[in-house]
Design a protein that fits this description.
Layout lengths: L1 H20 L6 E9 L2 E12 L2 E7 L5 E10 L2 E8 L2 E9 L5 E7 L6 E7 L9
Length: 129
Amino acid sequence: MKILLSACALLAMVFSTANVFAAADVSGTWSGELSGGNGSFQLSFTFKQDGAKLTGSVQGPQGEAIAISDGKVDGDKISFNVAFNGMTIVHTGTINAAGDEIKLTSTSDQGPAGEIVLKRAKPAASAPN
């Protein structure tokens, strides 16, 4: 009987620990404001998460979407690259526990670098029938 109770307690601990490390799916639209030497501007990210793989795009003030590459989600960590005008910007960040905010650090050996806080866009309300 003690073995059975011990096994049940062990299983309960394993499953509750697994839930702590499960991150929210970041699929959807996110936006934030990036400040730089030339002022600040809005960026909009569209992410599609499939397990640990992350794909999507970023759209800046010029309006053209740029694909992200090497995207990964590992628990509450997120990383991806954006390449344009001959440079690659590396983004790394953390997803908050509620799954509605991402704090990103962007670095590049050729240009823009900084931090940006992305907020998840609220889904559009559907019209009543």
